[in-house]
Design brief:
The chain is of the alpha/beta class. It has helices at residues 53-74, 106-114, 124-132, 160-168, 186-192, 197-200, 210-221; strands spanning 2-10, 14-16, 20-30, 38-45, 86-92, 96-98, 142-149, 172-178, 201-204, 226-235, 239-244, 251-256, 259-267, 273-283, 289-292, 294-300, 313-317, 320-322, 355-367, 373-382, 388-398, 407-419, 436-445. The strands form six sheets. A six-stranded mixed beta sheet has the order 6-5-4-7-8-9, with helices on both faces. A four-stranded antiparallel beta sheet has the order 1-3-14-11. A four-stranded antiparallel beta sheet has the order 12-13-10-16, with no helix packed on it. The relative contact order is 0.14.
């Protein structure tokens, strides 16, 4: 069957500047369907909410699934599922129906799918029960359930115990969810599915994608298991990999600041198997807004499986950053060969004394859109008697931001020059002294909508 699913998940959907989050990679694989036959039951939701295009697209997806399994088991789309594999159909609404037994006739399977009509509530527990009952306990075939649903449970018993009991018998459960038809309980779907849930659950809000989901699953089921797996995940330069947890299978290591490599000797070669890897990433730099986490994800294995991981996005809130004072332009100096000394005119730079540069950052809270801010910064030096001495005063105009709501605005790199000769510690070795300062900020809006009323005679 090959790699049957691949996924990439983020632990959060939004972070602040400099925050950390976790990335989880998941894979699942199954043995070769020709030499390792399978019994598959498609469990199809025909409740009232499936009326119209959802049911039509579900039927197309189910029939595409059957077609691919037919071709993969004997190398030809001859209308008969070969080499011992079989498919059964169970549909459900307020109750479930075994529409077919486990059979090999593609025509009979398609007829059962075409006959589905929508109406009624949603009874997942009865659907799982009727599907499990189709399996022959004496059969050595791998047993797989593919549950499709578009809603929460509205009838019957809780389905989780039935799904858990099925998994305890060695039955593999995949779940496909349609979230755009009134809502599904995503956590419930993950609880029903085999582990890791990220490898056995697929959810879409668009019923037009159902055929593709069924097709992808069938193609993966029909490939052989995977060996010599190598996954290299490189994240965007906006992030830095800080740690890697031990994967559930194989070994993983940090390649560099932005890349992780995961190696697995074999996966799903003797039975259905899933694996996952979690690593921690930290936001670095100043990039913000909606950021695509992937730089690239490279996959390879000895069987040549083509595996594509999703590319999740993350909202990074760094507020608005303003740097009102650019750094001084550097003077370029080149020393050629074995030259012992170089004379170079660096321009009009006066070096009166040693000392230090104080660089300040400040965050203006809740600055409203389209309003400039006037900012004053006052720096005083303090002696041992708490007397203050003026050392610097700057006024800046902070540009207006254009976001929809009030935002924090970070003002960075406000610099003050503090020469040694102004030191008030009284020590002759002023450069090594501890100097203390008090910094005060004054801010107000420049732009406003206030107007004085005209005088009335």
């Amino acid at each position: 069957m090959g790699v049957t699913n691949s996924n990439k998940e983020l632990s959060v959907t939004q972070i602040g500047c400099g925050d950390s989050f976790q990335i989880k990679l998941s894979l699942s694989a199954e043995p070769d369907i020709v030499s390792n036959p399978v019994d598959i039951v498609l469990i199809l939701d025909r409740s009232g909410s499936m009326a119209g295009s959802p049911l039509a697209n579900l039927k197309n997806g189910a029939k595409k699934f059957i077609e691919i399994i037919d071709e993969s088991t004997d190398g030809a789309g001859d209308g008969q599922i070969g080499n011992g594999s079989r498919i059964g159909i169970v549909s459900f609404a307020s109750t479930a129906t075994q529409d077919t037994a486990l059979i090999t006739s593609v025509a009979d399977l398609n007829a059962a799918v075409n006959a589905l009509s929508s109406g009624g509530a949603t009874n997942h527990a009865d659907a799982f029960t009727k599907a499990v009952a189709l399996f022959d306990p004496a059969s050595s075939n791998e047993k797989i359930l593919v549950m499709f649903t578009d809603g929460v449970t509205t009838a019957g018993d809780p389905p989780a115990p039935v799904a858990t009991a099925a998994k305890a018998q060695g039955i593999i459960i995949y779940v496909i969810g349609l979230s755009g038809n009134g809502g599904i309980d995503e956590q419930a779907l993950k609880d029903w599915a085999s582990d890791p849930d990220s490898a056995y659950v697929a959810i879409t809000p668009d019923d037009e994608e159902l055929e593709d989901l069924f097709e992808d699953l069938a193609q993966n089921i029909s490939k052989p298991g995977a060996t010599d797996i190598v996954v290299k995940d490189t994240v965007s330069p906006c992030f830095k990999v800080t740690s890697v947890s031990s994967p559930t299978k194989g070994a993983a290591s940090i390649v560099n600041d932005t890349a992780v490599e995961w190696k697995i000797d074999k996966l799903g070669t003797s039975g259905s198997e899933g694996a996952s890897l979690t690593f921690t990433v930290e936001h670095v730099g100043t990039c913000g807004g909606t950021v695509e986490v992937n730089e690239s994800v490279e996959y390879s294995d000895a069987e040549g499986n083509v595996v594509v991981f999703p590319s999740p996005e993350l909202e990074v809130d760094c507020g608005t950053v303003v740097i009102p004072e650019p750094c001084p332009e550097p003077v370029n100096v080149t020393v050629v060969g074995c030259t012992d000394s170089v004379e170079y005119d660096a321009g009009e730079v006066v070096l009166e004394s040693v000392g230090c540069i104080l660089q300040l950052d400040a965050t203006l809270k809740n600055v409203c859109p389209n309003k400039r801010v006037a900012l004053a910064v006052i720096v005083n030096e303090v002696d041992e008697r708490c007397n203050e001495y003026k050392r610097g005063f700057k006024t800046l105009v902070i540009p207006a931001h254009t976001r929809d709501t009030c935002q924090d605005v970070t003002v960075r790199c406000i610099r003050f020059v503090l020469p040694e000769q102004l030191d008030v510690t009284g020590s002759p070795n002023a450069l090594c002294n501890e100097r203390k300062f008090k910094v005060r900020f004054i801010a107000n809006y420049v732009d406003n909508d206030f107007e004085c009323c005209d005088n009335v005679d």
